[in-house]
């Protein structure tokens, strides 16, 4: 049984395609090019227009499989998994990528079990093995202390979820053309046992550091939790978000939703302040794609300076208060 093509699972809410769908295309495009295969974006929802689908093509998709139906307006894992399983049986994609979001982390295990496929969760890197064409899936393991590369050579499709914001969406190419396929919804695929009653944000959703343009993060160098007040003040001048290293979270100075790194969140802000953070590989993996990185650390050999655009060597308890003072003057 031949499997062919790379699929990315797009996400939509209230008829709008979410940004993570375009990030996935950037990943999928590289894999499809290496395999010399088609890149397909599958989008399920309601009220998604051809114009929105065209944006996916401009961002790298060769084809968009679009299924609109009022019954699919809300993400319900049983319904979505039935639809995707049915499409896998019909189209037989070789690789399926989804974001490691609530949707991706929920629906992909369902599909993997039902289709007897391999799945690697929360990947940070993806590649194609030269000799075999197998998908190489790299993800943190053992509490984020090592990176493991996994492959599933004996089952298809090969499936992976990818960390949101771990790569940037490709620049849109207005000259790209592709095919939009309108899929007919089969109502017999509705599970019927579950329905959406409402939506309530949890603490992680409320602490949305991944969409912030500016993130000020603190680490072990802050010495105690009370000193995160310096970081909050700094972030406030930019209407930015507060982040933290794993060391700071492990010491209970700040809660887990603020953690940046392999075992936390991946961020790609326009400006990232790393204050009192040494730059362990686990932390760098979560912020190194930031557009501009400013590091403040008293150790001139700290690894954080290797990825920084601007580094300040010195005592953060002298530098940050002075920086906050100068910023306060600017906003008066």
Number of spatially distinct domains: 2
Query: How many strand elements?
Result: 17
| Helical content (DSSP H or I, runs of 4+) | 25-40%
Number of helices: 9
Principal-axes shape call: elongated
Class by helix and strand content? alpha/beta
User: What is the rounded distance between the termini?
Assistant: 68 Å
What is the residue-averaged pLDDT? 89
Task: Report the CATH architecture of the largest domain.
Answer: 3-Layer(aba) Sandwich
**Radius of gyration of CA atoms, rounded to a whole number:** 22 Å
* Relative strand content: 15-25%
> CATH topology of the largest domain, which one?
Rossmann fold
Main pleated-sheet profile: 7 strands, parallel
Organism: Halanaerobium kushneri
InterPro entries: DHS-like_NAD/FAD-binding_dom, ETF_a/b_N, ETF_a/FixB, ETF_alpha_N, ETF_asu_C, Rossmann-like_a/b/a_fold
GO biological process, one term: fatty acid beta-oxidation using acyl-CoA dehydrogenase
Binding site for FAD: 245-246, 259-263, 276-283, 297
Strands, helices and their partners?
Layout: E1 6-9, E2 12-13, E3 16-17, H1 20-35, E4 39-45, H2 50-58, E5 63-68, H3 77-91, E6 95-99, H4 102-115, E7 118-123, E8 125-128, E9 135-141, E10 146-150, E11 158-162, E12 179-182, H5 203-206, E13 214-218, H6 228-236, E14 241-244, H7 246-250, E15 271-275, H8 281-284, E16 292-297, E17 310-313, H9 316-331
Helix pairs in contact: 3-4, 6-9
Protein name: Electron transfer flavoprotein alpha subunit apoprotein
InterPro entries: DHS-like_NAD/FAD-binding_dom, ETF_a/b_N, ETF_a/FixB, ETF_alpha_N, ETF_asu_C, Rossmann-like_a/b/a_fold
GO molecular function: electron transfer activity; flavin adenine dinucleotide binding
